[in-house]
Amino acid sequence: MKVSILPDGIIVKYTDEMLTELKQTVPEADISCISGSAAGLTELADSEVIYGRLPHELLKELKNLKWLHLPSAGADNYTDLSLYANPSIILTKSSGTFGIPIAEHVIGMMIALGRNFPLYHNAQKEGVWNSDRTEAIDIYKSNVMVLGLGDLGTQVCKHLSGFCCNIIGFRRDASVPHEFASEVRPMSRLRESLPEADFVINCLPGTEETSKVLGRDEFSVMKKRAIVINVGRGTTIDTEALVDALNSGKIGGAGLDVTDPEPLPSGHPLWNATNVLITPHISSLSPLNDARRLSIFTDLLKRYLSGQPMYNTVDFSSGY
């Protein structure tokens, strides 16, 4: 069985030692690495398994492809089944790679915005000793709402457990309790719950169902000091409504690692909104990501070869 790995040098990159270990761990697979720039129909035609991101026009030509594994935690742009030559294609993603660094990024934003670091950083750049006693928010024992309880949401809840927060998690099926959440509620109860929130942590994927789940109506019922943090997808928040909510003081601040549009263009009003902290979709960065990705792919490959149940599979109907 031919397995092709497409390192692009940016997201998928491995050392020779890591690849040697993979081949030794799964000796029954014929594993080869193909440069992302050189990957084409000739090189990939016989591949049953491919790890990497491919141009859509190539997917339709790969008739032997049975399983595509993505290096990302999301499956954006790959969830249309008509893209593939094989209607029984298995699509998996690298969930479990990024939860820890993203959770640390979230807590960093919570502290920065809760303690008004952007205000004091601006004063520092101007050489001004700003001793105004601006109201701060403690994470300790705060009410935190986490939207989405996949790997990202779970790691956020786990990392916050040491702060003694009251954590309310939201997902479609609220019938199953969550190890690190005080309570789990369905997404249908989000708006009625928001007045309780000190922090709203958005870990939702970008789908039609999650589009603009946080908009004007939601911001209007939140506490004036509430802080919204988005590490899911930019499309889950109504950007115009967020800018208005920040500038009018309807909410206290926002930490955004994702935006809509993305990249956020120069001159966009969100850049200069009140008390906003923006990072350019880098919350997942970690020196351990390559090893984590490879560990997940190795385990999935062993399962695939032995006929065991797969995980991290993408549901084409839901988009994640």
Model description:
By secondary structure, the chain is α/β, with parallel strands linked by helices. The protein has 10 helices and 12 strands. Helix 4 packs across helix 6. The radius of gyration is 22 Å and the shape is elongated.
Question: What's the structural blueprint in terms of helices and strands?
Answer:
Blueprint: E1 2-5, H1 16-25, E2 30-33, H2 41-44, E3 49-51, H3 56-59, E4 67-69, E5 90-92, H4 99-114, H5 117-126, E6 143-147, H6 151-160, E7 166-171, E8 183-186, H7 190-193, E9 199-202, H8 216-220, E10 227-230, H9 239-247, E11 253-256, E12 276-278, H10 289-306
Parallel strand pairs: 1-2, 1-3, 3-4, 4-5, 6-7, 6-9, 7-8, 9-10, 10-11, 11-12
Summarize the structure.
The protein has 320 residues and is of the alpha/beta class.
Biggest β-sheet: strands ordered side by side in the sheet? 8-7-6-9-10-11-12
Low-confidence runs: none
Helix and strand composition category: alpha/beta
Shape by Cα distribution: elongated
CATH fourth-tier homologous superfamily of the largest domain: NAD(P)-binding Rossmann-like Domain
